[in-house]
Amino acid sequence: MTAEEFKQFVKTNGVKKAATEVDVVTTGTFGAMCSSGAYFNFGHTEPPIKMQRVWMDGIQAHAGLAAVDAYLGATELDETNNMMHGGAHVIEDLVRGKAVRLKATAYGTDCYPRKEMDTYVSLKTVNQAVLLNVRNCYQNYAVATNSSSRTLYTYMGKLLPEFGNATYSSAGELSPLLNDPYYRSIGIGTRIFLGGGQGFVIWEGTQFNPGVPRTPEGVPKRPAGSLAVIGDLKQMSPDFLRGLTFTRYGSSLGLGIGIPIPILDEEMARSCAVTNDLIFTAVFDYSQQTRSRTVLREVSYAALRSGEIDIKGKMVPTSSLSSLYKARQIAQLLKTQIMKREFMIEKPIQNFSLERVFKPLDVRTEKEAM
């Protein structure tokens, strides 16, 4: 069943029957996932070149890996500081089958004498094109609002002054890590739906922070776990991978991820039965330009989905940066693929630690940092 179907089944039949009769619950999410990018092997030129600086459609990719390997970050902008065009848009163009301009310069060596190159590449011409993302699929996220007198432009979208709106970014009860809050079935080696193709969880995501406050059902009430993922870009689809632009902020990658959750026992069934009215997150004032913003209130996803929430006595309109339509589509596709045996469920080869703590970056002396 999809996560939504399962929750309805539990409501009608109870957890015990659900745990007995349902084997797998499919989840899905689609939203901006900034900590993303792709690495490429372009193949060797004649004569060979050791790429020192690389640009893909004017966006700098990061060399320093090997002679003709490079990594393109989703949020990298072109060198004119054009915030409308970033690495994520180049990645989408490649997935759409387009050719992109590849330029490279080098210092020249005896074994790699060539010093510059200018050509076009596509997914058909490169040897490898691999999506490699260090922080995706956040387990819950904050709600953003703005108490100041001016409009703010953020990675949470445009925030209107004086609590003019509030934005959030999660599929709520459909979101993968909210259905497996303690990472019992999701870990290193888990096979996932990634950008329209299949991929894997390769590590905990950066900023992995499971020790946050949780509801009685175990659902974190703050940003908690995240996933590092990998998959073949050549398998992916623009239906589930998009270059995004946030006004006066920059680019990001809109990405779809779906994860099957095996119903191991009644405890797992209870976790997958949690609905939006039992999933809470914190509302932060983004006009406070510090890393420790004040929590204005906690709010359920049911309230967020209603279209407005109360903040300090004012009814504030809400909007989602995450596509519920796409999340439902992913969960249904994943269900269909599993039933057709086109998608095999993998047991993690290693589970995540619940003891991991996310630390801020402070100014320290060398001795203090050791």
Structural class: alpha+beta
Number of helices: 8
Describe the biggest sheet? 9 strands, antiparallel
Which percent band covers the strand fraction?
25-35%
Mean of pLDDT: 97
> What share of the residues lie within helices?
10-25%
Tell me the Rg in angstroms: 22 Å
Number of domains: 2
What would a concise description of this structure say?
This protein has helices at 3-13, 15-21, 87-95, 176-179, 266-272, 301-306, 324-339, 366-369; strands spanning 24-26, 29-32, 37-41, 53-56, 59-61, 69-73, 100-105, 116-121, 128-136, 143-145, 152-154, 157-159, 166-168, 191-194, 197-204, 227-232, 241-246, 250-258, 260-262, 280-285, 295-300, 308-311, 314-320. The chain is of the alpha+beta class and 370 residues long.
Give a verbal description of the structure:
The protein is an alpha+beta fold. The chain folds into two domains: 240 residues, no CATH class; 84 residues, no CATH class. Strands 2, 3, 6, 9, 14, 15, 16, 17 and 18 form a nine-stranded antiparallel sheet that branches. It has a four-stranded antiparallel sheet with strand order 5-4-7-8. The chain has a three-stranded mixed sheet with strand order 10-20-21. A hairpin with a 3-residue loop joins β17 and β18. α1 packs across α2 and α2 crosses α5. It is globular, with a radius of gyration of 22 Å. The relative contact order is 0.20.
